[in-house]
What does this fold into?
Amino acid sequence: MVSTKRLQRITAAATTLTLTTALAACGGVSIGPPAASGTDIMIWSTSQPGSAQDVMQRIIDEHNATYPGGGNVSITWIGGEQWKQKMAVAMAGNQEPTVFYNYGGQLLHQWVDGGGVADLTAELQADPEWTGQYAAKDVFGNATFDGKIYGIPASGPDFEVLWQNEAVLRNAGADPSPATWDDFIRVADQVQATGVAPVALAGKDLWPCMIWMQYLVLRHGGPEPFERVKAMEPDAWSDPAFLTAAETVQQMVRSGYFAEGWNTISYQGGQADQQLASGQAAFQAMLYYDLANMRAFAPEFANSPDYSPAPFPTVAGGLGDPTAMVGQPAQYWSISARASDEQKEEALAFLESATTSEAYNIDYLAKQGFTPLTNSGAAALTAGDVPNGELLARLYRMGVEASSFQSYWDQDLPSAVITPLMTDIGELFNLSITPQEFVTRMNAVLAEQSK
It folds into this structure.
């Protein structure tokens, strides 16, 4: 689900936070001895609300009480920025914990290349009864490198959708969930004719602007344009999909589609969610777990059927699969490459039991606002006391039915590319540069990285 940018995406003011959101740090955490010393299984995870921590502790206590010979699992919760720093120090010093939470993708790949992460391929492939319980397509994809698996799913699919206020759309005489970009423009114009902005945007943070760019590129060009950027191919940004997406977002700006003050609004402050909830906007392209933010800033709207998600529209003549999503199939638990055989065996036993359990999928994930990992967990969403269970079930279906996921641009590129990319996206939305200048500048960044 990630770089520090994404750790900061869900507001710390929310009482129910996302799995990738850090609360205030839970005190200092010493690095301690290397993972392979002794038989203890130390887990490091990003901080969670107290209720979620209590659930995880119960799961751990049950494991320790029932594991043959007695279990050795314990967990340390670490605030987001502190987690990033401590993991970097631990990996650099060969002192990573036995089990650690991570977001897959480029950062995990770096740790794999550094020799800090255990290859789990043989164990996972030998147990299809276990792995078959995870419902998302290619669920191990973001933790698989060179054909080897280095992570066990820790959460359901993490993706971005088009959130909408259906009451605003009804008032405008517009249909919800526009299927095509032409439909979206027609609906946006209908909404605008009533004096309401079509789109809420927390543009000060820049990454919400990136959502529009990335989905438009994915719909127009499919995954290949960004894959060429990731590969640092010369002039990869010259693919027509990037230019078309840049032209489209600038047309949205010029048409006044974004709610007033969009480039001064921060997501953490909740203003964009409040604009959507209060009827000042009809849509917001945002993470699926915006639900957690909405519960904090507009709880009545969060519980309303008018708060609903839709897939990002398709585009005429686009090369992209209409069911492909921006996001990732899971976040992960990984095991230290320096864990002893005994530690690895117990860690695998714990992670299998925990991540497929109802306590983990419902109490730890769903009740905090996240979709579960398993179909059995999903079946319980609407059968019990899960808040927003019907909405979570809908989001779960969207995630597991996605044909593929494209990782977030700001997670899947080197920082030397991410920083100018976000700056240039901001200037693009502020009309400070032209679409062609955006393309030219980003090609220059790639050229510099290739030297």
